[in-house]
Amino acid sequence: MQILKVRKRIGFASSLLLASLCLIGETLATEIHKVAVTRGALYVVQDNGSVIRYGEPNFFLKSKGPFVDRVARISGLENITGFEVGANHALALDSDACIWAWGSNRNGQLGFQEERIISAPKRFNNICDVSDFDARGYSSILLFKSGNSVAFWGESVPDEIKGVKYDFEEPIKSVVAYSLYFAITENGGVYAWGEPGTMRGILKTDAKSSWEPEKLDVPCRVKQLDVALDVMFVCESGDVYIYGKNAAGTLGTGDTNSYNQIKKHPTLSGVRKIMGGTIRIAKLKNEKYLGWGDQLLGPIEWTNSGYALDPIELYPPEGVVGFYSYQSSIFFIDKRGDVSRLIPEEHWLFPVKYSLEDYSFKTYKYKGIEKE
User: Fold this and answer.
1) Which of 251, 313, 265 is nearest to 286 (CA)?
2) For site-directed labelling of 175, which of 60, 141, 182, 214 has its Cα 20 to 30 A away?
3) H-helix or E-strand containing 38?
């Protein structure tokens, strides 16, 4: 069995940190965890091992101080090289390849310990040798260097397999957590397991859940994927393959039809990265940005006028080198380290509808960092 090689950790000069990490992250988005995004906030790992938050704090990740929409340094973290954040918990990786964690464990996402809430970042000295990890939604997954193995925790995971390592025969490059768990191989193959939910049928089994990793039939070398109620596979070639409900136009196909087989996207090509889940953003190889998906932040049955079914070109501020998005939280980063949050305009008729066709930006200055 081939053992994963230890990835080289790169030091960044402060003035070039964000520009460099974004350019690298566009190519290896699931491997380089220098930036993480959740509802209302962007987290960025600095070259000195600290972590900065741009935006609004999450209740479960906030240990003290006012709830202010600002740029703040997260206290209690040391020597951090990677960061991921879920709905109400966070994981960080340090220079010794050990895991830090804090937040809510109500859904078992921090099931490697017994506390219901971890109020401040805590280092787990018994969880090291980690080469990749993810913390989306109410789940956590770790990829270990030794044994080419994964362990995972989260909502609906049976007790008997929580935290139990599964060894892969193929070398694994990166992992993704959601209701389904994914592993991307060094050769661009994709394994999946867990509870399919709205993606019922993506696994061969008819059972409600399958906890044995199964290789999916994606006809390209996959470099990155974006998972929510459906999934988009981004290929090394720039092509995109899709699967799932697409109920709110979240696959950007111009319709709301379900895709019950893994199929090539009818229009998207030359794609570098896709993120967002419900409102998705893509960066193309020609440096253009596109957006589409569910702009209706309310009951889905009210109206379908809140859907952007076809990708719309977005125009970020000048100097932007990358983006990170989750649901309606869309952030662009420029080479100075400043962050611009896209603010879709509220529609006068439907106050819960946000339009990607009309938007403004809120800017967070890198030099305006405060202590948390």
Assistant:
1) 313
2) 60
3) strand 35-38
